[in-house]
Amino acid sequence: MAAATNWVISVFAGRIMDTGRDPVPTIRSAQRTGAQVLWASVREPYNIRQAEEAGCAIVTIPPAIFEKYLAW
Q: N or C: which end of the chain has fewer CB within 10 A?
């Protein structure tokens, strides 16, 4: 598959976690397309670290969660 460098794939990782599944395999699958991957639907500060470790290019973070992350 050709690299989609101008594309962004938004994975609603929080929603995936709501179903009891790990979102990282979905993130990894999206990364194989060559697109930038966005970790959406952060539910807790630890998700920011997960997104970073998974190599996400973009993470959408609610202000209250970001404040907790900074204090963590």
A: N
Question: Measured on CA atoms in the order 33, 35, 37, 40, is the torsion positive or negative?
Answer: negative
Q: Positive or negative, the Cα torsion across 53, 57, 60, 65?
A: positive
pTM: 0.84
Query: Which residue from 30, 34, 35 is spatially nearest to 13, judged by alpha carbons?
Result: 30
Q: Tokens representing 72?
A: 């963590």
CA 36/CA 21 separation, integer angstroms: 22
Over residues 37-49, the pLDDT tens digits come to 999 999 999 999 9
As a whole number of angstroms, the distance between CA 11 and CA 20 comes to 15
